[in-house]
Design a protein that fits this description.
This protein is of the alpha+beta class. It is built from twelve helices and 21 strands. It starts with 9 loop residues before the first helix and ends with a strand. Fe (ii) ion is lined by residues 207, 209, 246, 444, 446, 466. Fe (ii) ion binds at residues 207, 209, 246, 444, 446, 466.
């Protein structure tokens, strides 16, 4: 199918179809995923899961983690559970009852800069004030003075370490503040932002599709795959990893691309995601990208987006506009930073496109109506104009336009480099040519593939959990690998090496630039 064959159907379907894309509870009839190996599970007992159904269950082998311990961040809603309860007389915490603090999984390292980094730890029990954390240079035996955390939510302890040196590896430890003799709750490492001339490795994972533990739709497969891939990523000891979207999945409760209606359920998915990343999370900074399963699609209502976004900002925080000179969005959904001799530009194709793209015939979304929105596009152009890094990479869930195996998959944003000249992707492509971007990294299609268009690599580093591997009839790709895995990228002053690493560690494809 040629690009010219894509009619913009939104014009004939009426306004109503443009306003909402909430697949909502219609998953039994609307949930059609090509190649879906789990169709029989959809009709299982109760797709709409009540709160109690996912209120318990350990994430890290423990049995104490609750999905309802928290104040839901900015909303001011306080639930009850393992960490704290609210009564008329005020907050009664586990600290009051002497319950020792315990973490869920590894802490998440975020926003590493030339002088520090953020650390975000989730409590399975206890309260943040029971914790302290400290850092030391890897070569040092002396810990710096420990810091008390801030508490963005009742189950979250967060630290911002500062005064560090650039391009250095630091060890950190999270401890029980009231028990000096106890072993650290977690011991990890983080690397500060590298300056020009450095050689480093970063990891690219995408489409992990992690549901909360009660999920019946995807089953345990995505979590098992993510654990395996994360182990491989950890072995590569990257400075950081970027997940290019579809970190989460909500098939079981909210249907195909449905808007989550329960923030605690979203939190539960982020908890399971973080837990599955294992020690990779505790030893490499994490950068998120918005996919179509994060609950932040632009065709959802503002309230629906805020419900999901509030949990992302709490549990997988990213750069704010003040973190790096390149600034970005206050929603932390697009941002940029440099690392060594490379510029990393993270984009959000999902939240500023308001038409419905559900992979079903009859919906209004067209292959050429995806958009970054005016503000993000202007920011992208300004960021590239100001760039002085030798290497320039973009990261996005999928192209800002689609050209895949058929019309519906094209409208769904599939096709990578085949869509280089479709819709607003043509604008992005022209900017990449003008400002010397070498690689456009994306996800969404759940396979490894690479295509060079006008000298620019369109590189898709597989998937790290998704059980669905899309075929040529859906994506239009003639050359691809269906293995799960991740992308390992080594960057130096004179060369960049991109490797496709299948789960288990086998490198199945590799290319270098220049
Ligand atoms: Fe996906």
């Amino acid at each position: 199918m040629t690009v010219g064959a894509f009619a913009k159907r939104s014009a004939v379907l009426g306004v109503a179809g443009l306003l909402a894309c909430d697949g909502g509870q219609s998953l039994l009839t609307n949930d059609r995923v090509p190649g879906d190996p789990y169709p029989s599970s959809i009709g299982g007992a109760g797709n709409v899961v009540g709160s109690a159904a996912f209120a318990s269950g350990g994430l890290d082998g423990s049995s104490t983690a609750s999905y309802y311990p928290v104040g839901i961040g900015g909303t001011g809603i306080v639930g009850q559970g393992g960490s704290a309860t609210i009564s008329d007389s005020g907050v009664e915490t586990d600290a009051d009852s002497g319950v020792p603090p315990k973490l869920i999984g590894a802490p998440l390292i975020f926003t590493p800069t030339t002088s520090g980094f953020g650390l975000n730890a989730v409590l399975a029990q206890g309260v943040p004030s029971q914790l302290k954390a400290s850092v030391r240079k890897q070569s040092s035996r002396v810990w710096q003075s420990p810091l008390s955390p801030t508490s963005p939510a009742l189950d979250l302890a967060q630290w911002m370490f500062s005064g560090l040196e650039p391009g250095q590896e630091y060890e950190y430890q999270v401890e029980n503040a009231s028990d000096e003799q106890a072993a650290p709750l977690y011991l990890g490492s983080a690397t500060t932002q590298r300056e020009s001339g450095a050689t480093f490795t970063f990891g690219l994972l995408t489409d992990s599709h992690i549901e909360p533990p009660d999920a019946v739709y995807t089953g345990p497969g995505p979590e098992q795959t993510l654990r395996s891939v994360a182990s491989d990523i950890g072995s590569a000891h990257p400075d950081f990893m970027i997940n290019m979207g579809d970190m989460l999945d909500f098939h079981t409760a909210f249907g195909f691309n449905g808007a989550p209606t329960d923030s605690a359920y979203v939190r539960g998915a982020y908890m399971r995601y973080r837990s599955a990343l294992g020690d990779a999370l505790g030893n490499a900074a994490h950068f998120p990208v918005i996919g179509n399963w994060e609950g932040e699609n632009g065709c959802f209502t503002a309230d629906q987006i805020e419900l999901a976004r509030s949990q992302r900002l709490l549990y997988v925080p990213g750069p704010t506009p003040d973190t790096y000179p390149q600034s970005g969005s206050s929603a932390q959904d697009y941002y940029a930073f440099t690392w060594g001799d490379a510029l990393f530009v993270v984009l959000n194709v999902m939240s500023y496109t308001t038409t419905v793209h559900l992979l079903d015939a009859g919906e209004p979304g067209a292959p050429d109506d995806w958009t970054l929105g005016e503000a993000q596009m202007a920011w992208l152009q300004e960021t590239l104009e100001k760039a002085n890094s030798k290497w320039r990479f973009l990261f996005i869930h999928h192209t800002v336009g689609g050209a895949a195996g058929d019309y519906d998959n094209s409208a769904y944003g599939r096709g990578g480099g085949q869509a280089a000249h479709v819709g607003e992707q043509a604008v992005v492509h022209q900017l990449m040519q003008q400002y010397g971007v070498q690689i456009f990294f994306y996800g969404h299609d759940h396979v490894f593939t690479d295509m060079v268009v006008d000298g620019i690599h369109y590189t898709l580093p597989g998937s790290a959990g998704a059980p669905w591997k899309f075929s040529s009839s859906e994506t239009g790709y003639s050359s691809y690998w269906t293995d799960s895995g991740y992308g390992r990228v080594e960057v130096g002053p004179t060369a960049v090496d991109v490797q496709f690493v299948a789960s288990g560690g086998n490198v199945i494809y590799e290319y270098q630039i220049p």
